[in-house]
Design goal:
Blueprint lengths: L23 E5 L2 H4 L12 H6 L17 H15 L3 E5 L2 H4 L11 H16 L3 E7 L5 H7 L5 H19 L5 E6 L1 H10 L22 H28 L2 E7 L2 E4 L5 H23 L6 H7 L8 H7 L6 E4 L3 E6 L13 E4 L21 H15 L3 E6 L14 H4 L2 H19 L4 E6 L19 E3 L8 E3 L1 H13 L4
Parallel strand pairs: 1-2, 1-11, 2-3, 3-4, 4-5, 5-7, 6-8, 7-10, 10-11
Antiparallel strand pairs: 8-9, 12-13
Bound molecules: beta-D-galactopyranose.
Protein name: Glycoside hydrolase family 1 protein
Keywords: Hydrolase
Organism: Macroventuria anomochaeta
Length: 495
Amino acid sequence: MTWTHNFDESPDAELKDTLRRDFHWGFATAAAQVEGTWNKDGKGESIWDKFCHTPGKVKDGSTNEDATRAYDLYKQDVALMKSYGVTAYRFSLSWSRIIPLGGINDPVNEKGVDYYNNLIDELIANGITPFVTLFHWDTPQALEDRYGGMLNQEKYTPDFLRYACLCFERFGDRVKHWITYNEPGVYTLAGYAAGVHAPARSSFRERNAEGDSSTETFIVAHTEIVSHARAAKIYREEFKPHQKGQIGITLHGNYSEPWDVNDPKDVEAAQRAREFEIAWFADPIYGSGDYPASMRSQLGSRLPTFTDEEKSIVKGSSDFYGMNTYTTFFVRHLDGEADINDHLGNVEKLDTNSEGKSRGPESDTYWLRTAPSGFGKLLHWIWDRYHVPIYMTENGTTAKGEHVKAPPSAEVLNDTFRVDFFHSYLRELARAVQDGVDIRSYFGWTFTDNWEWAAGFEDRFGCTWVDFESEEKTRFPKRSAYFLGDYFTHLIAEG
Ligand code: GAL
């Protein structure tokens, strides 16, 4: 099926050739969501393997044992991506596929290394630039069992650094874009504050047997920030001089708008919410070099403190701002003292504002609504506060009505809801570039429908529809995949 897209009219006509010639565009994925082959070819167990084999944890009761079988089908996937016209592909490495038990003295699984070497070679042979994430949430289960994973900064850090170095050594001759952590914030908020993701810890005993949302959330974040910085330091000192790549971190962050723009307390609450969500990680790395004052004043000593040595390596430890964002919320202040388990900044997040305006049309994912104007504001907020080049590393949506039986109808594949999402967000991105914001990449989330963590297979984020019932996990391109190719051809300067 083919669809044609025309961008000759306003406002698209004014955005032609706005993006730099070397702008990268493509799709992002994560190992645990696509690879499958979860316990073969030497791969060790990750915390997500354990999580999804624990009854009651995943919405549809599914596991990621097969996922989209990207491990087996990578050549087919690279060919399909090439047919969409991508210039880059962001994927993550599975730590427990490379070092099954994860630790500094544990053996390497050469079959795992081979798989990533083959994938990288296949991408490069097809003119697609690899962007590689070291950690996209799938901590080796053995490290969780040995010492509590990231709760134990002292024991965890050498294990992570050995893994990082091994990856630089084995893949760094061809990989020039490294991301240490994907969304350290969501890892800790969902895994240790809410307890709805692996490793499933929180203060809520009806859900989790162990954990303390009021402290562990911030301890794990601290471990992530400092170990990111140590990995970046090693890369810069020992690998960058000859490999000549870049290294950074990818942060999550949705935009917060005041619920009532005329109430100074809501205006302040929205700013505080952005600080709790984004500046928590970004201020230490790109800004003041420390956690935001708003967090310190609410959390006191429950928020860890950077030692002088940590501070000196954390600040400036990322060559770029890796940015994942999806939506916008309205934020209303709460009166009185914050709850002990609060991690939002003592605010309430709402779908409508004081005038009853909705934050955007609903997708198939409860938290996600199309909200392009908040995205535009967020790009400016991040640029104004940190002033580092932005690499958009994830953005995308689900759409209602896509969870159907195979084969999907022409109507399902003509995913106009997702096309409208991408179109409206990319207009904002191009306008921000016209305003002087330095943006260098865009990765749609995601290439194919995949295993969406605790939501299982029901939340379909792909620009390619996947028949999960079939042995071959048959792929069916959706219109949005071609839309992105056409629109980037229009937006990226020629030459
Ligand atoms: C991000 C995450 C992805 C994907 C996406 C959609 O937070 O990095 O792995 O799940 O959200 O929910």
